Amino acid sequence: MSPKGYSLRLVQANQAADLEHIGVRLGRYCIAKDIPVMEIARKFSVSRMAVYQWFVGASVPHKARVEKIERFLDKANSSK
C-alpha cells in the first residue's frame, strides 16, 4: 500500500531509483512523511512535474536548488 497522495507507481519508481541523486533522497523523505508534491514544488519554486522527475531520478535540480534541498533534508533529519 502506498502513502496517501502518492501513487504506487511513483513509490516503486522512487524505491528503484539511485539514492546518489538528491531528488531521489528528497522523494524518499517526502513519501515517508506524506508531504504533498505541491508543497515541495512551492517551497523550491518549481513545477510539480519537476518534483516528480526529481523523485524518480529522471532529472536533477539545478545547483542552487540542490543546496536548498540539502539544507531542507539536513534540517528534517536533525529534528528527528
Provide an overview of this structure.
- This protein has five helices and no strands.
- The chain has 80 residues and is mainly α.
- The protein has a single domain (8-75), classed as 434 Repressor (Amino-terminal Domain), CATH 1.10.260.
- The N and C termini lie far apart (24 Å).
- 20% of the residues are buried.
- The mean pLDDT is 93.
Can you lay out the helices and strands and say which pair or pack?
Elements lengths: L7 H9 L5 H12 L3 H7 L4 H8 L7 H16 L2
Following the backbone from N to C, one meets helices and strands in this order, namely HHHHH
CATH class: Mainly Alpha
Q: What amount of the residues lies in strands?
A: under 5%
Strand runs, count? 0
Distance between the termini: 24 Å
Number of domains: 1
CATH fold call: 434 Repressor (Amino-terminal Domain)
Overall structural class, as computed from helix and strand content, comes to mainly alpha
What characterizes the major β-sheet? none
> Count of helical segments?
5
- Uncertain parts: none
Bulk shape? globular
User: What is the C-alpha radius of gyration, as a whole number of Å?
Assistant: 11 Å
The CATH architecture is Orthogonal Bundle
Helix content estimate: 55-70%
What is the arithmetic mean of pLDDT? Answer: 93
